[in-house]
Each structure stands twice: as C-alpha cells, then as structure tokens.
UniProtKB/TrEMBL annotation:
GO biological process, one term: DNA replication
Secretion signal, residue range per the UniProt entry: 1-25
GO cellular component entries: replication fork
Keyword Signal in annotation: yes
PANTHER family found in the cross-reference section: DNA HELICASE-RELATED, OS03G0423850 PROTEIN
Family matches, as InterPro entries: P-loop_NTPase (IPR027417), Pif1-like_2B_dom (IPR049163)
Name recorded for this polypeptide: DNA helicase Pif1-like 2B domain-containing protein
Domain of life of the source: Eukaryota
Keyword flag Signal: yes
Amino acid sequence: MPPHRLNLKVGAIVMLLRNLSISHGLCNGTRMIVQRLHEHCVEASLVTGSNRSHTVLILRMKLSPSDANIPFKLNRLQFPLRFAYSMTIRLKGKHLKMLKYICLV
C-alpha cells in the first residue's frame, strides 16, 4: 500500500507499485521521473526497461489494504506510486549475480 500522503514534485524519482501494462513497461517496480503534475494524473518518463524515456500518464486507482484483522473493507483512491531514491536489497542481489558472471568470464 502506498503512503497516505505523497508530496510529489517535478523531478522526483518514483516507483510503480502495480502492474498496469507489462507490454508498455509499466510493471511493478518500474522507476520513473515525474515530468508534470495534473489533478487526476501524473505525467512521468520511464527510467528503466526497454521503453526508457517514454512519457506515460499514471492515473489514480482504487487501492485497499490486505489487512484481514479489520472487520470492514477500506478503499482509497490514489496514485500507485512510491518514492524510489534508493535500491532495495533484492535488487542489489540481481546486480551481484551479474557481476559474478562478468568476473568469471
């Protein structure tokens, strides 16, 4: 679930949290740079993948937490984005495997 409040600005690096269109490179974990902010969408350019530097529009979508302990269903309408200023441990592991392969050759 994305944070409740996301203070986006032009130039911010964000990560997509849902698979929107795999064929267009809009899948979970895709990094983007915010180009323009609109009331109902965010215009961003892709930083990773084969569609690098393409501009896309990210719309708000209905998201609900997966916490089964609450007795009611909660929905929020928000952008499926999170700030992405650093890499996760899982991503570093992929780079280390590639580095190991390059050093052995």
